[in-house]
Design goal:
This protein has 16 helices and 13 strands. The chain is of the alpha/beta class and 438 residues long. The strands form two sheets. Strands 3-2-1-4-5-6-7 form a seven-stranded parallel beta sheet, sandwiched between helices.
Length: 438
């Protein structure tokens, strides 16, 4: 122990304090709960987010040019207000890095941010000169945090808790053999050396255990959950439109195409519904598949795109809080899972925020029984992500309930909370058998 009854945890996470970034939320949201549990976190992260004002926070840039260029783009965008000056600076940096960038791209074709592990490791060595952490806790997302933790574990033998956000290995993830070998190697090191290894889904844990039986009882599934909104929830009131809200990113592997086909079938059954129904889309850019589906949809007046909601400079209200309020006002929340093998081992992080709103959810789920079970147990719709008829039928049920003004808040608080998941991790860390002499 350090500082009386407090435990000191060395927290490694490439993404931290980044408004709206799912990988950041998964670790940043745990910090207040760590503090409540008597943990003193020392955070080592990338430089993409804002510097934390409450806990000791070290921000470091990657060691090699591919990740360095990526991180600097975000780092400088936050600090250079002039768009022209930003472009000039980035051009100069890109030209200076170009020869080394090309070499790395040719010879080290693994995860973009991997070289952050090098600078993070040396930063941790400086911290360890004056502090003796009770636990090394790596969180990601990016594999670099786990790589750093593995190196520290080998050198110092400290208890290591690894929280793996996304499965490291899955069918069709890439054709890059070097990246596959690296992912396989790192997953093996985690399964062999981590004292506690946590995955977010039962299937991801089961497959990791099948690949690495030595993991044994040190592997766990803990659903990360979401924090309760910090605003007062406004009771639901039906408006003149049935508003279906989609919040989050869109990509070729998670797009609106099948949903729009189901929506069209629902409207074609009674075209009057086009006047009563609206699809509100929030988030970053629209992928090419979704863009085509929206463009070809024969009822364009039904669709409203709001883009990404940023922090309000006048009120200081974060983009995330604004989005949560808009979720709270929607008649139904659309949750897209995707239609690729990765989804069998993955939950969209947006699901936890949706659950907190207590609004009805229509989820398009791909071959993930655990996700279907969670949603249905809480009274939501979970339909196969590739089944147009099932989507149209769910919309029929939703519309019928809206007509009857029967879409009130569920009144069911989400059991999947950040506090709960943090307490589970804390309990597992405390159960690690420490060496007799440290």
């Amino acid at each position: 122990m350090n500082n009386g009854n407090k435990q000191v945890w060395l927290v490694l996470a490439h993404a931290f304090n980044m408004d709206g970034r799912a990988a950041s939320q998964a670790i940043t949201d745990k910090i207040p709960h760590f503090l409540n549990l008597g943990i003193e976190p020392i955070v080592v992260s990338g430089a993409l987010g804002t510097k934390d004002k409450i806990v000791e926070h070290h921000q470091v840039l990657p060691a090699l040019p591919v990740a360095l260029r990526f991180d600097l783009r975000h780092y400088l965008r936050l600090r250079i207000s002039s768009r022209i000056l930003y472009r000039i600076v980035m051009l100069a940096i890109s030209l200076a890095l170009l020869p080394f960038y090309i070499i790395e791209k040719i010879f080290i074709r693994i995860e973009t941010s991997w070289s952050w592990a090098i600078t993070a490791y040396f930063c941790c060595l400086r911290i360890l000169r004056t502090r003796k952490p009770d636990v090394i806790y790596s969180a990601g997302g990016a594999y670099a945090a786990h790589l750093t933790a593995y190196w520290l574990k080998l050198r110092f033998g400290l208890p290591w808790v690894a929280e793996i956000y996304d499965p490291m290995i899955f069918e069709g993830q890439t054709t890059n053999k070097m990246r596959i070998r690296f992912s396989t190697w790192l997953e093996g090191k985690i399964c062999k050396h981590a004292d506690v290894a946590v995955w977010f889904t039962e299937e991801a844990l089961a497959r990791a255990k099948a690949r690495h039986p030595e993991l044994g009882e040190r592997g766990h599934c803990i659903i990360p959950g979401g924090n309760a909104p910090e605003f007062t929830r406004t009771p639901y009131r039906r408006g003149k439109h049935l508003v279906i809200g989609y919040f989050g990113s869109l990509a070729k592997t998670r797009n609106l195409e099948i949903f729009m086909q189901g929506l069209r079938k629902f409207i074609d059954a009674n075209p009057q519904r086009a006047e009563q129904t609206r699809l509100h889309i929030y988030g970053g850019g629209v992928d090419s598949i979704s863009a085509r589906a929206l463009r070809e949809f024969p009822y364009p007046s039904m669709i409203e795109q709001f883009g990404r909601i940023e922090t309000d400079p006048k009120t200081g209200e974060s983009g995330r809080d604004q989005v949560l309020k808009r979720m709270n006002a929607a008649d139904c929340l659309l949750l897209l899972h995707g239609t690729v093998p990765f989804c069998e081992q993955y939950f969209p992080s947006k699901m936890y925020e949706y659950l907190w709103t207590q609004r009805p959810i229509l989820a398009l789920v791909w071959r993930n029984p655990q996700m279907e079970r969670i949603l249905r147990e809480l009274g939501h719709w979970a339909v196969p992500a590739d089944d147009v008829d099932s989507i149209a039928s769910a919309l029929e049920e939703l519309y019928a309930r809206w007509i009857k003004d029967d879409l009130a808040d569920s009144g069911k608080a989400s059991p999947y909370t950040v506090e709960s998941s943090t307490r589970q991790i804390f309990a597992l860390a405390n159960a690690i058998k420490r060496p007799a002499v440290r």
